[in-house]
Amino acid sequence: ADPDVTPSEPTGILTQLTPADVNKFATLTFDNVFSLYYSLKEAYRRKASFICNETVMLRLMTLKDGAGQYLWKPSLEIGKPDTLLNKPVYTSQYMPAITGTNADKGKKILLFGDFSYYWIADRKGRTLKRLEERYAEYDQVGFRGTQRVDGKLILPEAVQVAAFKTT
Predict the structure, then answer these.
(1) Which one, of 126, 155, 166, lies nearest residue 25 by Cα?
(2) pLDDT tens string for the chain (167 positions)?
(3) Which residues, including other chains, have CB under 8 Å from residue 122's CB and lie 6 or more apart?
(4) What is the CA radius of gyration of the chain?
(5) Going by DSSP bridges, is the β-strand pair 108-113/159-164 parallel, antiparallel, or unpaired?
């Protein structure tokens, strides 16, 4: 990428992670979730959480350990997240969904890490435009606001990702 060209999109976590940060699995299993958990350095595990799509969350909810106990622990308090291995699990519509088909190969499906190292910065101040003429027929005034922001994972080793193998 040309360093003089400003990207039109913020830098996302999934695109920033290097192959060293990716744990590749054929399927999502109990052992693979443990491997992902322990692939993250202990210092970052203290404040770590999981992020995935709802389709992955459904799959995680069905995982059991060797004794037949579910790994998933639903929250019993309003406003508290569900947990997996005693770590919060959050969903994001921007994480890849899984379908259970060959189309899933190579998808980065589950993030685990300390996301306080992903910084979001304001690049410019907010702009606000008053749109009087557009809504004059209805005797209304509209406003259009914009703001330029960017995001970057400042410390890539603070986040690990699980992905399906490509072969």
Answers:
(1) 166
(2) 444 445 566 667 888 887 777 889 888 888 899 999 999 999 999 999 999 999 999 988 888 888 888 888 888 888 888 888 899 999 999 899 988 778 888 889 999 999 999 988 877 778 889 888 878 888 888 899 888 877 888 998 999 999 988 76
(3) 147, 148, 149
(4) 20
(5) antiparallel
